[in-house]
From TrEMBL:
Name of the protein: CBS domain-containing protein
Pfam family, one: CBS
InterPro entries according to UniProt: CBS_dom, CBS_dom_sf, Diverse_CBS-Domain
Residues passing through the membrane, by range: none
Domain CBS per the UniProt entry, residue ranges: 1-62, 71-126
Keywords noted in UniProt: CBS domain
Organism annotation: Candidatus Woesebacteria bacterium RBG_16_42_24
Keyword Repressor carried by entry: no
Domain of life: Bacteria
Length: 140
């Protein structure tokens, strides 16, 4: 289950933040994404990929661009008892690398494909279970 990879406190930035604030927060926490929130409500997610595609390269100043202009608004989520195979399948289908794990509307943590790969490398049982679950997903 995906909850085995948490809990990791979600890192957030306020919806009034500039892109540079989000980049500083990501660098400070050594992570590749932040959730954009307003009054504890998730409005979107901002990732390294968003910066690469929508940032300085296309003429936007990180210091002057509001995060809400460049964040990804469509946030795909999973619940804590989701199996890793389902999470990986959705990540592949939607071409995303970071996914919030929510319970009752509250974000518990954000899972990344990097964290899943690390778990595979460090835990053979985790790998075996996920591969078995992939097989079950594709038999139905």
């Amino acid at each position: 289950m995906i909850e085995e990879l948490g809990p990791i406190t979600p890192v957030v930035v306020d919806s009034r933040a500039m892109v540079l604030d989000a980049l500083d927060t990501m660098a400070d926490h050594d992570i590749g994404s932040v959730l954009v929130v307003e009054d504890k409500q998730v409005l979107g997610i901002y990732t390294e990929r968003d910066y690469a595609r929508k940032g300085e390269r296309v003429g936007r100043s990180a210091a002057r661009t509001p995060i809400t202009e460049v964040m990804t608004r469509e946030v795909h989520t999973k619940i804590p008892d989701s199996i890793v195979a389902e999470v990986l399948q959705l990540m592949a289908e939607k071409d995303i690398r970071h996914m919030p794990v929510v319970d009752g509307g509250e974000v518990l943590f954000v899972i990344s494909n990097k964290a899943i790969l690390r778990a595979f490398a460090e835990n053979k049982a985790f790998w075996d279970t996920t591969m078995r679950d992939f097989g079950a997903l594709h038999r139905t």
